[in-house]
Write a structure and sequence with these properties.
about 575 residues; mainly alpha; 9 strands; two-stranded antiparallel sheet; five-stranded mixed sheet; 26 helices
Length: about 575
């Protein structure tokens, strides 16, 4: 008698539950949340929040936007990532690179920056749903390094004018360099002194933190060590607050010594969809299609670079802290953050390495620390905006310069020179073109890397040795770009010899083969037969052998070893004699 089995229903429910947890990771860790985790998440979130506020204000300057847009962009990521993120350490928000990319595309126009965030988020979310994260693998390390080094130089030098208090400096990098030096006599003494003082303090505090992080420092007691570490970690906030107090005191007495941020919009941003059209200064209405057309290649570059930056950070800290992330889920978290961020006037954001490092070092236990960070940003928007009026631009410039300086990794050039000199080509192409247009640098670097990759596919390493019969060893896979080159090597060494010679094709490293290669091999086998010599395949992978047999190649011979193939060619040559 058959009995009703309910296990499939239970299994279906379990499968549905696991799928839901995969798409909404908070369901995995929230039921296990502990009070001890709450304490650590509160501490980490507060610490990161105090780091985020001054950085967000500064990065808005890099994007060419009013400073409040930096804060508008800094709080949505904490809420979204808590629900959808798979890394406990990553913090999403404005970064130096994304700010530079945003400025290069929208030119400091707030409405277009917000619309750009929506479109980038949609692209990233679709990529996540279609599992297209593998596309990021085609952006090579030299391209990434070339871009980040150029971006650091561009961003850092772009802040020199604020350190000097100069006005009317163009944004094009080469013109910016020229006019910055040209206008040095117009530098404001107050801005220069304050800017250099802020830079000095930030560097000193950064060095202290690095020394504390690198190992035990006997000179400090445990309490003093924690105090110094806290001060060094929150150095950006402390320096900006101190500079603001100095500026306020001078302004109160009617002395306009410093270039200050000035009036900013107060309060929280309204929650509304971004405008799909824009109006120019002369009243001309720009349609959605014209705006998108104006974004050009930036609409492809910004989503990819945002994903690349965030996933690289997530993988680095996941490896460091012994847990795993889901790359496609990270894409979804960033995409949804940018989509929802556009409803609160945010520009495109991604993971921040510096703030993620602070988050990890403070001992965050879950992504919930991001909620605390977001609350700190919201409180700043609600209550502190009038105080931001007095923030000197020189202090924000100092924060940016110290943030991007570590991105200039000059040691990587020496490493690439030692390991593979050809990798310097995409590095320098990306580096140099990025000073012209950031998008061109990335596209140019990826194009050069692609050409090198295709060249390696078209010219695989082939080792030819003589063991009575020729042995040709393929050191990589065979695909259609390599078909003609393989045929050329075989003809030049075996068929064009006088007399023609038998050949063993060692395919031990070949794991894939395509129709073009099969067609070329059919022609080569016919040439060997016409000349009365042998072509024997050796050590074929099962998948490759199956394809060759299915192709029904006339005269196909194969063995399990090179030695057996050599014996076969030798015996057949003796029979022919």
């Amino acid at each position: 008698m058959n009995r009703l089995v309910v296990r499939p229903v239970s299994a279906w429910r379990c499968c549905s539950c696991n799928t839901l947890k995969a798409w909404i990771p908070i369901l995995s860790w929230l039921p296990r949340y502990k009070l001890k985790w709450l304490q650590m998440d509160l501490l980490a979130g507060l610490t990161v929040g105090l780091t985020t506020v001054p950085q967000a204000l500064a990065y808005a300057e890099v994007a060419g936007l009013p400073v409040q847009y930096g804060l508008y962009s800094a709080f949505m990521g904490g809420f979204i990532y808590t629900v959808l993120g798979t890394s406990k350490d990553v913090t999403l928000g404005p970064t130096a690179i994304m700010s530079l990319l945003c400025f290069s595309v929208v030119g400091g126009q707030p409405h277009r920056a917000v619309l750009l965030s929506l479109l980038c988020g949609l692209i990233q979310a679709v990529m996540a749903l279609l599992r297209l994260g593998f596309l990021l693998d085609f952006i090579s390390f030299p391209v990434i390094k070339g871009f980040t080094c150029a971006a650091a130089v561009t961003i850092g030098f772009g802040q020199v004018k604020n350190i000097l208090g100069l006005q009317g400096i163009p944004h094009q990098f080469y013109l910016e360099v020229y006019y910055t030096f040209y206008k040095i006599p117009e530098a404001r003494v107050g801005d220069v002194v304050l800017g250099l003082l802020c830079l000095t303090l930030l560097v000193m505090l950064m060095c202290m933190k690095m020394r504390l992080d690198s190992g035990p420092v006997p000179a400090y007691s445990r309490l003093a060590r924690k105090l110094v570490w806290a001060v060094a970690t929150m150095r950006n906030a402390l320096v900006v607050v101190a500079a603001s107090l100095i500026a306020f005191s001078w302004e109160a007495y009617g002395h306009h010594v410093f270039t200050i941020t000035g009036k900013t919009s107060q309060g929280l941003p309204p929650f509304r969809p971004p405008s799909t059209s824009d109006t120019t200064a002369n009243g001309t209405i720009v349609s959605f299609g014209e705006i998108v057309d104006g974004f050009g290649g930036g609409l492809a570059v910004i989503p990819l670079m945002g994903l690349l930056e965030s996933i690289a950070i997530a993988k680095a800290f996941a490896s460091q802290n012994d847990y795993r992330i889901d790359a496609n889920q990270e894409l979804l978290a960033i995409g949804v953050t940018n989509i929802m961020g556009s409803f609160v006037s945010a520009y495109p954001v991604t993971g921040s390495f510096g703030r993620t490092a602070v988050n990890s070092q403070t001992g965050v236990c879950t992504p919930a620390g991001g909620i605390v960070t977001s609350v700190v940003v919201l409180l700043s928007l609600a209550f502190l905006m009038p105080a931001f009026y007095y923030i000197p631009k020189a202090s924000l410039a100092a924060v940016i310069i110290c943030a991007v300086a570590p991105m200039v990794d000059y040691c990587v050039v020496a490493k690439m020179w030692r390991i593979r000199k050809l990798d310097l080509l995409p590095f320098f192409v990306t580096f140099l073109l990025s000073f012209w247009q950031v998008q061109y640098g990335i596209v140019g670097g990826v194009a050069v890397s692609g050409v090198l990759l295709l060249y390696n596919m078209a010219r695989p390493q082939i080792k030819v040795s003589d063991h009575g019969a020729l042995v040709v060893e393929l050191n990589s896979g065979l695909s259609f770009p390599a078909a003609e080159y393989l045929s050329h090597v075989i003809h030049s060494h075996a068929l064009s010899a006088s007399p023609p010679r038998s050949l063993v094709l060692d395919c031990h490293h070949v794991s894939i083969i395509d129709y073009t290669v099969i067609s070329e091999l059919r022609n080569v086998l016919r040439q060997f037969k016409l000349r009365g010599v042998q072509l024997v395949f050796s050590r074929l992978q099962p998948s490759v052998l199956e394809v060759l047999l299915a192709a029904e190649l006339e005269g196909l011979r194969h063995t399990d070893s090179v030695e057996a193939a050599l014996l076969q060619t030798e015996s057949e040559n003796l029979l022919d004699d």
